[in-house]
């Protein structure tokens, strides 16, 4: 008798008799290429067109010293992690920094499930 258990990320683990081995699907240990995690100075490559759109909007509006955009939803575009370092944040509180970014990305954010946002002052 073989049992299959579905774990995180859709990984399946198969358990059988004492003679069978435990088979773990590669997706359990999958790693994602974070090629978009490069800074502005190094250049940017994108996993999805949406990452590129978000990146360009923020680049144009904030002229950041550092900008990373990650689609952390697995490619479906519903969750992003964004890190921005800009001198436009120097006189703003964290809440106002986030409101500024939310205003820039208002249209995109309305389609997302979630956003992880980190803003930094450039002093």
TrEMBL record:
This is Similar to Saccharomyces cerevisiae YAL046C AIM1 Protein involved in mitochondrial function or organization. PANTHER family: BOLA-LIKE PROTEIN 3. Belongs to the BolA/IbaG family. InterPro entries: BolA, BolA-like_sf, Mt_Fe-S_assembly_factor. One of its GO terms (cellular component) is mitochondrial matrix. It comes from the Eukaryota.
